[in-house]
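Help needed: design a sequence for this.
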């Protein structure tokens, strides 16, 4: 009887040890996964109206008039604990406005444009235009057709890093 109690105690201790070790391993894996190094990019969008050779913050004005230029700025900051690889940001061209040609600015980024609400992107979107003879020809899309602008950086957005991109639109 004593031998079976000792054997049972030994088996019970082995099972408990395996359970504790398994739980500790699970907790360590869970901690590693939930606390893994990852970027956390926070973006801010701001706009200003070009008025009388000055910029007026959009939130400081109640009306924008046809013909006025809105200067949009997208600021991205990585407050995470790892670099953001292949970082991209998208700016929307609001309805009732037209993109101002050659106004896209961002250090170290390439700009791409969409004319279909962000489904496809190109450095120079193209459209098909019917010719007088009935044939079609691919030509650059007018900037009035642009619906979004996307900035792509080749270098990662480093931990603690900050990027800025801007573009202009004209109110119709």
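Sure. Designed sequence:
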């Amino acid at each position: 009887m004593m031998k079976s109690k000792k054997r049972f105690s030994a088996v019970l201790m082995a099972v408990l040890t395996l359970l504790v070790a398994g739980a500790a391993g699970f907790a360590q894996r869970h901690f590693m996964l939930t606390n893994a190094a990852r970027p956390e990019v926070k973006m801010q969008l701001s706009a200003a109206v070009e008025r009388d050779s000055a910029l007026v913050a959009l939130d400081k004005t109640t009306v924008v008039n046809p013909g006025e230029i809105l200067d949009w700025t997208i600021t991205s900051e990585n407050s995470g604990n790892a670099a953001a690889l292949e970082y991209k940001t998208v700016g929307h061209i609001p309805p009732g406005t037209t993109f101002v040609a050659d106004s896209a600015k961002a250090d170290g980024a390439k700009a791409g444009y969409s004319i279909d609400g962000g489904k496809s992107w190109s450095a120079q979107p193209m459209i098909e235009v019917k010719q007088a003879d009935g044939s079609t020809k691919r030509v650059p899309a007018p900037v009035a057709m642009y619906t979004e602008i996307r900035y792509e950086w080749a270098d990662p957005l480093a931990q603690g890093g900050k990027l800025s991109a801007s573009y202009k639109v004209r109110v119709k």
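DSSP finds one helix and ten strands in the chain.
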